Amino acid sequence: MAGQLDGKRVAILATHGFEQSELEIPRDRLKAAGAQVDIVSPEQGEIRGWSGKDWGHLVKVDKLLSAVKADDYDAIVLPGGQINPDLLRVNQDALKLIKSLFDAGKTVAAVCHAPWLLIDTGIAKGRKMTSYNSIKQDVINAGAKWEDSAVVTDNGVITSRNPGDLEAFSAKIIEEMREGKHQRRAA
Q1: Which member of 16, 57, 113, 182 is catalytic?
Q2: CATH of the structural domain 9-178, one choice from 3.30.70.260, 1.10.8.80, 3.40.50.880, 3.30.450.40
Q3: Active-site residue flag, 182
């Protein structure tokens, strides 16, 4: 797998309360494939994850959200957990970055509760998607066709359900990034 993504850059957009494994496993798999991965956050310094039933450990923030743009990256990964996407979905800079990457035909990947961000950017409408089961109705109400599958891909937009899907999710991100930009209808 090493070298598949040499020269590619990935933003993992997160803030406090991200599901620990949903940030760390894709980060580690993408780095192992040769991508440069930046943890991007509206917070400076470090952000704390959520693991099981309590707070997890800290992860270093590489870039402030206010200092990045879509042109800096080939893909964006959106970890879930309940807290992280709920905080980011009211952050206009976060939504703008996600939408800009999507509009540029770049890979957009969301797991667990992170499809909320695809709903709030308008990306979900008319798209095949999956999510954590508790937000299934939110995804359907946003106009997406929800599927109960480990990974659902719709023209470079990748969604997965939960931490049990992370290996398949990470492999699909690598595959879609290798394919390059996607021609899409506007969200």
Answers
A1: 113
A2: 3.40.50.880
A3: no
